[in-house]
């Protein structure tokens, strides 16, 4: 626990000094990472802690964004709600919509609940372009950040610190909620709702309240998005954003409180970095999600906790060989997959097919700083050999890891029992 507090303090200090060492473009990316982290943490209150998988949570993110923009235009940063407090309007919008939608959706559980949330979100996505007063039609609405508290919020650095403050406060409140009696009931709701009902609790009311609280914090994230971009349109209600928060949360780990924060931050950074490098970055995101669900169902945070527990038990030196083999094998296998996907993407692209129609020869493609001929054996043998090598190294890492688990000290129950006088050892 002490080490965790130290790591969190170091992380917070790093976030405070981040704008001083990053260019303006990267500061904007950091803001998006913070907003995505809060959105995923809010979603995890419903999904990971409450056991209710929603496929339409982007609706409350979008409602919070639009509500904040309307408040920005109406209040102009004056009165009781200056610019830094405008995300409260997003929280109110998300909470009210969450109460209404949650009352209907939580009438059912399991897959039926998920389908109802998806239907409600798609209904809002279909209606939004036609509701010009609320959502501005297809063009959306926009506003401007007004000066407040001696700040003009004209540059990305000030918006970053405003976003950081709201994200840290919101995540702290979400964690505090897990320590309350209602937070404990939320975990019990995930494990066995029928038992709670048998004990006399109103399960439907509890589900509605958890749904509304999750939507409220999603609305805060949407309000921060509105302050950052100063505009929004109905695309925010698209299914893609709802799917994105599900992927981020599960990749990070739904059973660890800060797991969704880790997953959302990493995947947002990956999206910003990879989208400029390749057209297949969404495919890589999907592959990563599938691999995490197959081999790391507890998510990246669960993997980190597992390795840290082994380090505390055995020390760094015992873990290094297995960790190095796993990282090396994963890196080599990833290189093989990227090589194959990028080669196929270039070969089947429209530009390459146009060149192929004018010339019978297969033109070379540029990849990893050199030219590769699609008709050459080396071009296809390279990813194959890299893939085989990566799998072999991963198999070695698996054997090393199993050997570590086999070396677990076994406690003799007889040795722990108090010895009776006169008993032979």
UniProtKB/TrEMBL annotation:
**Gene Ontology cellular component terms for the protein in this record:** plasma membrane
Alphabetical keyword list: Cell membrane, Membrane, Transmembrane, Transmembrane helix
Topology versus the membrane, per the UniProt entry? Answer: Multi-pass membrane protein
Q: Which residues form a coiled coil?
A: none
Q: Does the keyword Repressor apply?
A: no
From the record, give the transmembrane residue ranges: 29-47, 59-79, 85-104, 159-187, 208-227, 247-270, 282-310, 316-340, 375-394
Q: Where in the cell is it found?
A: Cell inner membrane
The answer, when asked if Cell membrane is one of the entry's keywords, is: yes
Molecular function terms from GO: branched-chain amino acid transmembrane transporter activity
Broad class of the protein's primary localization: membrane
Which InterPro entries does this entry report, sorted A to Z? ABC_transp_permease, LivM-like
What PANTHER family does this protein's entry cite? ABC TRANSPORTER ATP-BINDING PROTEIN, HIGH-AFFINITY BRANCHED-CHAIN AMINO ACID TRANSPORT SYSTEM PERMEASE
Task: Please give the name of this protein.
Answer: Branched-chain amino acid ABC transporter permease
Name its species.
Pseudomonas veronii
